[in-house]
Amino acid sequence: MENIHTATAEVHHEDGHSFSTKVIWRTFWILLIITIVELALAILYYETDFLPKHFLNGIFVIGTLAKAFFIVAEFMHLKYEIRNLILSIAIPAMLFIWFLTAFLWDGNSFKNLRNRYDRYHVEKNTIKVKPEAKKPGVE
Amino acid sequence: MAQAVPAGQKWWSGGKSPYNVEYGKLMMWYFLMSDAFTFGAFLISYGTIRFSSNSWPDPNEVFRSFPIIGEMKIPLAFVSLMTFILIMSSVTMVLAVGAGHNGDKKSVMKWMFFTILGGLAFLGCQAWEWTHLHNEGAWWGRNPFLNINGSQSSTNFTNFFFTITGFHGFHVFSGVIINIIMLIMTWRGVFERRGHYLMIEKAGLYWHFVDLVWVFVFTCFYLL
Fold first, then answer.
1. What is the pTM of this model?
2. Is residue A88, in this structure, part of any structural domain at all?
3. Which residue out of A1, A4, A6, A11 would a mutagenesis test of the B interface target, given it has the greatest number of B Cβ atoms within 10 Å?
4. Which of A94, B64, B185, B195 would staple B75 via disulfide (CB 3.0–4.6 Å)?
């Protein structure tokens, strides 16, 4: 067991400024500010409806991707690793783009087909339920 | 940016790690990739079902409770607290890894302790959220909330919510257990004897992954 560990300890860390505390806290502030902005927009939308929801969703998605990028690059230190490793993570992650697109497209198609051919489904989703019938906490 | 290495370095000719990291760290990255696709599958299936639905409950209405204070005028306050706790615990984890690089055993223990605390706090919050929702009548197969347009909602909403947050919570729980083991190993001087704290780094990668997943879960369920 021991010789494996001495071998691994020889792996060089060439990055001169790895784990600078300053960068870590800066990343923390960036994550916090993005989250606060997202929450502020969400609450503002809830109170005033000031922007179309689709536009707001786009902002949320971009904010989330930005946060993801910072967590992976700085906290998980991927930015400072060798290029081979960065690409071995980044390129398979590109699969998500197709994954997401294909399935949301499919979901949208399913909705349209169901609305066109299933009258019961359309009715079920438009009939408003009387408020007294469904109070929270009452079974 | 990416690590500076000598040009013309033959990485794949054997005798050394082609990624310039130890075996365990690379394997952790591979595992995290697989887990990322598992969570991706869950979240994308959630998105698909939601996209195929005509209407859905409003997260601003469903998630507006806060412990002790009761109902808050500000929705999403509790989940913001949870997000903050988890991000803070990620920061303390990085600081633990940094202390490990300096061989500073006491600081490693301190930061690991705070990370564990953060993880437990998050689990407590999630448990409270689940209990509260359950008391309102929500559970797998039971959805008391109405859609935004006032129509009867399906149980898809609660099924997905409890399954995905449950899966994530289980990862947080296992992460806390791993971190406790790391703390004990550090305290007993295992890493001091080895001469490196690489094990803390690997545990750190797992913990950051848990945080990363939460960022996506938070967005999908509470914001979008």
1. 0.88
2. no
3. A11
4. B64
